[in-house]
Every structure is written in C-alpha cells, then in structure tokens.
Predict the 3D structure of the following.
Amino acid sequence: MSIKDFLDEHRIPYKDSASHKNVRQGWIGIDCPHCGEGTGKYHLGINIDEGFANCWQCGPQSIFKILANLTGLSFKVIRDKLGSFGSGMGKSGREGGLHGRLQVPKGLTDIGSLETKYLLQRGFSADNIRKLWGVQATSRLGILQFRLWIPVYHHGILETWTTRSIGSESAAKYVHAKPEQERTPIKHLLYGEDYARHSIVITEGVLDAWAIGPGAVALFGLNYTSQQIKKMSKYPIRAICLDNEKQAKRKARELYKELSCFPGETTLLELETGNDPADCEPSEIEEIRKHFCKEV
C-alpha cells in the first residue's frame, strides 16, 4: 500500500506540491499532530521516494509514530500495511539523503594535557579513547576551541564528525559538523556501529557509548530518525540504555515500542548506579556487556 492510499483509507487530509505552497515536489504534506493539528498548514512533509518525514517546526519525525497518533493503529499494523515505506530506504537505494563532501576542521592535534585531564575526570583513558575511537583535540583557536574532535565512521569510511566541549559549563556540549561539511548526515548514522556485531546497546550520547565500549551505539541525542530505526532494526538483539531523566525515559519507551515490531529481541534497560552509562559503576557496565556485548 502506498502512503497516499494509506492516508486516503484513514481520511487523513494531505496536499502535494501542485495543491499547496508549503509542499515541495516529491513530498506530500499533512498537519503535524504535535505542532499543527487542524491548522491546514501542512508543515509535516513525507518524502514519497525516500520514506522519511520532517516537520518544519518539530524536525525529523518517525512515520510510524505520526501515523499511530493519527489513526490509533499499532506500529506493527502500520508497518504491515506500508511494507518497506518508512524504513528510510527509498527508490535511490540509499539510506536517506544525499552524500556530500566531507570537510574536517583545520588545526586538529593529538590529545593533550587538558583533554587527558577531562577524560580522566570522566573515567576514561585518553590512550584508549585515542586508539579505539580515533579522537583528537581541536585547535586552540576558533569557534571549536577546547573540544574533543570525534570522527564518525561507517564501514571504515569517515562520514561526518562531532565535537565535545571540555571547557565551560555554558558551552554547548556537542557541536556537530555542518550539513555542508558531512559526507552523510549525522542523524542517518549510529555512532560506533562499525564495532557492533550480533547485538547492540543503544545509548544517547557518544560518551555513553565509550563507557559501555564496543557493541554500544549512540543516537547523537535523544531524538532518533527513521534512518537510525532502520539500522537498529537489523540487529537481532537490541538493548535500549538511555539516561535516567524523565524525558529520556519517555523517549526510551517510545523507541522500545518502535523497535519491538521488528524481528528479534528488544530490551529496555534502567540504570541503577548512575544517571547515564558514563556515570555508572564499572560493575553495572560489566553486567550490561556480559549480557549484550558477548560477540564483540
């Protein structure tokens, strides 16, 4: 069933590029149930070829979640009706989005004393972070000063990068590459996926993945995309290990619901000794690795 057939069947109003100014060619627009229900602005676009959704105000959206909110159907029923649509794989055969030209910041250096001190305070070995994850330090000059530069690989190819502040509390924790500096959009990827095998432990941030070690993947934040869902769904064993904050717990339950409709096992973990994996006791991390990182 096509997305248009689905919307017609459930009497969900939509517009195409020929019938509304807010809808681009190759997309159909609906009112976003989160920020524009009943407004007639059609700000939530669904890409017909690539199978992903994006709201002008809310950002990337899960098609399954949007349609479940609008119809009351379960994710499994929607997935059965739409088939591969909504998985992030479209007619182009790519996992959503165009490949750009990678641009790495100038002035990168080896991890120095300041970065080493920060990593030690967070419970990490600078040598391990350097060798295993390829992390470097940014230049002391410019807007990215006092940051760890963190490369993001997929199948051994450097696709994009992010940075983590080691300085002032007022500084943004993470600053990602700009879209024009990426080969592949960062939210189309899972950090650490090259180390994953039969199972994955899904975390929120890069440091959480470092804490758990190879076999953990990070979403680059709480929000996730259809492209990331598609990647996570391929692993037979999936353990969700987000932070202990209220918003993170709610997002973890949503992710559990989405991943549970795919073949395999999905487990929702709740941390006992820390707010996030990077703050947990080593014994708890070891227990997580014992159960979910056996083949790494």
